[in-house]
């Protein structure tokens, strides 16, 4: 199942370290079949607030996503970004192609009923 590395990066002033990070990141992703889906695009905020930029990278599975993040090649360049651009990064699995939110609602409803019955 596809796993996404999602970064919410705070506003920052680009500098030479940031440029070097951006120039080198693709080479760190290639061995793990990572590809950018979104890379620093401006967002349209339709609810709440969202300061900063978003980056979304897709990997074929969680193992490759974690291997990329932990790889010596990525860890070598990571400080170039973290010294200059604060942010949050998560790895999250995508929903399967046949995912139906109605099934999730039904399972949540059943669990809530069981919990209510257990505490009654």
UniProtKB/TrEMBL annotation:
Pfam families: DUF1330. It comes from the Bacteria. InterPro entries: Dimeric_a/b-barrel, DUF1330. Residues 2-94 form the DUF1330 domain. This is DUF1330 domain-containing protein.
């Amino acid at each position: 199942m596809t796993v996404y590395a999602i970064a919410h990066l705070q506003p920052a002033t680009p500098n030479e370290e940031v440029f070097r990070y951006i120039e080198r990141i693709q080479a760190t992703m290639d061995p793990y079949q990572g590809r950018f889906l979104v890379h620093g695009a401006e967002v349209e905020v339709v609810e709440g607030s969202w300061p900063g930029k978003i980056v979304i990278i897709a990997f074929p599975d969680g193992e490759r996503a974690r291997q990329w993040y932990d790889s010596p090649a990525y860890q070598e360049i990571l400080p170039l970004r973290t010294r200059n651009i604060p942010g949050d990064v998560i790895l999250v699995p995508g929903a399967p192609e046949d995912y139906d939110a109605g099934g999730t609602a039904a399972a949540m409803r059943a669990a809530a009923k069981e919990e209510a019955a257990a505490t009654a």
